[in-house]
Amino acid sequence: MEIKKIVFATDFSAGSKYTAPYAADMARKFGAKLYVIHVVQDMGKMTAWYAPKVNMKELEKTMEEKSKQELQLCCTEGFGDFKDVEYRLLKGTPFEQILKFQQDNKADLIVLGTIGGHNTGKENAFGSTADRVVKNASCPVLTVSLPDRGTAESYAPRLCSAGEIRL
């Protein structure tokens, strides 16, 4: 088995923060390049009916700027001294973009966090994105769950003074 390229998909959640060291460790052990990707959801499709007067271009610009900042910050702590990392910000439907990125870059492994693991029961352990990636990926997928409620609380997002969610 040869693993030269690994995709780590992050949504900046507690699960992603917990999963980051696993992605870096796998890349380190295999001598692989690590691609850290985040997909900004296409908000125009989601909000047109609910909020037709929202300036979508401004909303998307703000989301992209914030996502670029978070992408650089989200995993640096978990990666330790691992440096062969490339960050990418994508736009679209998360599971579709993750799978497309993997195919386009011929990645050998996808790593992503799940929403619950032990705390949610087997039938709910994957969110819809993780479930679709696992079912449709053309390469192996490593999923990582938060181990228990105590750990989950230590990785829970907290509200910052400006009203932004940060880990």
Keywords:
167 residues; alpha/beta; Rossmann fold; five-stranded parallel beta sheet; 7 helices; 7 strands; 20% strand
Task: Give an overview in words.
The chain has one domain: HUPs (Rossmann fold, 3-Layer(aba) Sandwich), CATH 3.40.50. It is built from 7 helices and 7 strands. The protein is α/β, with parallel strands linked by helices. The chain is globular and about 50 Å long. The strands form 2 sheets. Strands 3-2-1-4-5 form a 5-stranded parallel β-sheet, sandwiched between helices. A two-stranded antiparallel sheet has the order 6-7. A hairpin with a 5-residue loop joins strand 6 and strand 7. It starts with a strand and ends with a strand.
Topology summary:
Layout: E1 5-9, H1 14-30, E2 33-40, H2 43-47, H3 56-74, H4 76-79, E3 85-91, H5 94-104, E4 109-113, H6 128-136, E5 141-144, H7 149-154, E6 158-159, E7 165-166
Parallel strand pairs: 1-2, 1-4, 2-3, 4-5
Antiparallel strand pairs: 6-7
Helix pairs in contact: 5-6
Short description:
The chain has 167 residues and is of the alpha/beta class.
As for the number of domains, it is 1
Approximately how much helix is present in the residues?
A: 40-55%
Shape: globular
Annotated CATH topology: Rossmann fold
CATH architectural name: 3-Layer(aba) Sandwich
| Amino- and carboxy-terminal Cα gap | 35 Å
Task: Give the rounded overall mean pLDDT.
Answer: 77
Percent of residues in β-strands? 15-25%
